[in-house]
Write a structure and sequence with these properties.
By secondary structure, the chain is an alpha+beta fold. The protein is built from 6 helices and 4 strands, in the order H-H-E-E-E-H-E-H-H-H.
Length: 144
Amino acid sequence: MRDKERKSRSFAKVLRRRMTDAETILWTQLRRDRIDGYRFRRQHPIGPFIADFACIPAKLVVEVDGVTHWSEEVFDYDRRRDAYLKALGWRVLRVQNIDIYEQLGNVVEAIAVALPPSTATRSPSPASGGGKIKANFALARSKK
């Protein structure tokens, strides 16, 4: 195991014990295969980085961004980090803390839409014409 990966694994254990309120709320919706049977891991190391939530079979990372992500310096770091993850084949979905607090159902639906169809029965998604959720919810939030 490379040194950077070893460091990220041990730091991920610390982060699991120190999840933010928004991460904890979202985790209650992602744990135990609650979205179409997809399993998510929290604070999952990927190379030198740690994803807030990762669904390995779908290669989907969900990042929860609070006010610390609003500076230009952190925004540039996130952009480089996202490029690294995308180069490895991961898709990155960014959601804001405020959206978890105020629109949790929409956040969960945006995650469900980002996952590939499963063999389990799914409710209609906005992408297929069902529901009235903003289709660009996740994309609009990722550009801040």
